[in-house]
Write a structure and sequence with these properties.
245 residues, alpha+beta, 10-stranded antiparallel sheet, globular
Length: 245
């Protein structure tokens, strides 16, 4: 079935390009992390609108696979008592991107935010109510995307510009080093204008203890030996975002 969709799109591609009215909004993911309504039952998310569903691992790669969102209680609760449920976007968007070649790069990587590959999760209480959402950049991607992951904080700061964000630079910790001449560690927190929601956005670009630019044994460049990440967490009161692991 996927092959048939791809072939059809390849045939239609010239026609699609001939109609500027077919905007990016019309081929956005069927259901994304931004479509989630906090404070509403998890049943708002339909299994058929997403790709894979799994237990979350504190913003890390998917854990135990779930057959349905209804199985959220299978996921062990965090210290807050909330269950993290991870999901991926419907991969049909990848076929559209492939068929249209490079025309819609904002869809690249399947599950992405502002064209950056990410891992998205819902935070659900024992009654099945969505209390929050979590987004973390995905390290399982190209070196280029990893290197630029930390810059995603700029998009989030712009998105929440009306929240009077309080941002601060975190000083270099023991063992940390800059990547070349660049060191970045910023944490922003904020509360929604109505006072009901809190967010935390944290981004890092650095070398952690033990990550060396050049191998002391081979004198070759250690490709990928750096940390470039962004993590975002939004929670309804009285829950509060926690620090990144």
């Amino acid at each position: 079935m996927r092959k048939q969709v791809l072939l059809a799109l390849l045939c239609l591609a010239p026609l699609l390009w001939a109609h500027p009215s077919l905007s990016q909004e019309q081929i956005k993911p069927v259901y994304s992390i931004w479509d989630v309504q906090l404070g509403q039952p998890l049943s708002q998310a339909r299994d058929s609108d997403v790709g894979e569903i799994a237990c979350g691992t504190d913003g890390g790669p998917p854990g135990q696979e779930l057959a349905s969102f209804d199985d959220y209680m299978t996921c062990a609760p965090e210290a807050s008592g909330l269950h993290e449920v991870n999901f991926t976007y419907d991969d049909e968007q990848d076929y559209i991107t492939l068929a249209l070649d490079v025309g819609y790069q904002f869809l690249k990587g399947g599950t992405s935010v502002y064209a950056q590959p990410v891992i998205v999760s819902l935070l659900v209480d024992g009654a099945g109510i969505v209390q929050g959402r979590r987004i973390a950049t995905d390290d399982r991607t190209s070196d280029y995307d990893r290197r630029n992951a930390y810059t995603l904080i700029r998009n989030f700061k712009a998105r929440y510009g009306q929240w009077s964000l309080n941002c601060s630079d975190i000083p270099m910790r023991d063992g940390e080093q800059p990547v070349g001449n660049r060191f970045f560690h910023e944490l922003c927190t904020g509360t929604s204008p109505d006072g009901l929601t809190m967010i935390a956005i944290e981004a890092t670009y650095l070398r952690k203890k033990g990550q060396r630019a050049v191998s002391s044994e081979t004198q070759q460049v250690n490709k990928g030996y750096f940390e470039s990440q962004m993590r975002y967490e939004e929670l309804l009161a009285p829950y509060t975002p926690k620090a990144a692991p």
